[in-house]
Design brief:
The protein has 137 residues and is mostly helical. It is rod-shaped, with a radius of gyration of 35 Å.
């Protein structure tokens, strides 16, 4: 049975084996979404934070000398001041090292998140394209 294009039942019905204009535009949109998601994924991966590798401040290296001044009181005061100063330097260095390690761990964690988001974005676009192409058949 042959239906001509003026027949109400044949109007808007695509011929088998050809894509309808709406399907073609849906595929085009899905491809554009895929391209946009690929570009966005590249931008996300490029913008992922990386550890700075070096602290913002230098480690303290000055060591306070101990001294002997002939009298027990003066020597004791000097040695106590040297102990306190060296403890402050050691505490400052330990704090700076800890902050550097935390910065590196935080940057690494954020970089994983950025890469994961980029992968999810691309996978969603590929799934959308696949679903759109599957509707044709």
């Amino acid at each position: 049975m042959h239906l001509d294009s003026s027949s109400p039942s044949a109007a808007g019905t695509p011929v088998r084996g050809t894509a309808s204009p709406s399907h073609t535009s849906a595929v085009a949109v899905a491809v554009l979404v895929l391209v946009a998601s690929l570009v966005s994924a590249v931008v996300l991966i490029a913008a992922a934070p990386s550890p700075s590798g070096s602290p913002d401040a230098d480690l303290l290296s000055q060591e306070i000398d101990y001294g002997f001044y002939g009298g027990d009181a003066y020597t004791g005061i000097q040695n106590a001041a040297a102990d306190t100063g060296n403890a402050v330097v050691a505490g400052g260095n330990a704090t700076l090292e800890l902050l550097t390690e935390l910065d590196e761990a935080s940057a690494e964690r954020w970089a994983h998140l950025y890469r994961g988001l980029a992968a999810m974005l691309v996978l969603a676009a590929v799934a959308n394209l696949g679903r759109t192409l599957q509707r044709r058949s």
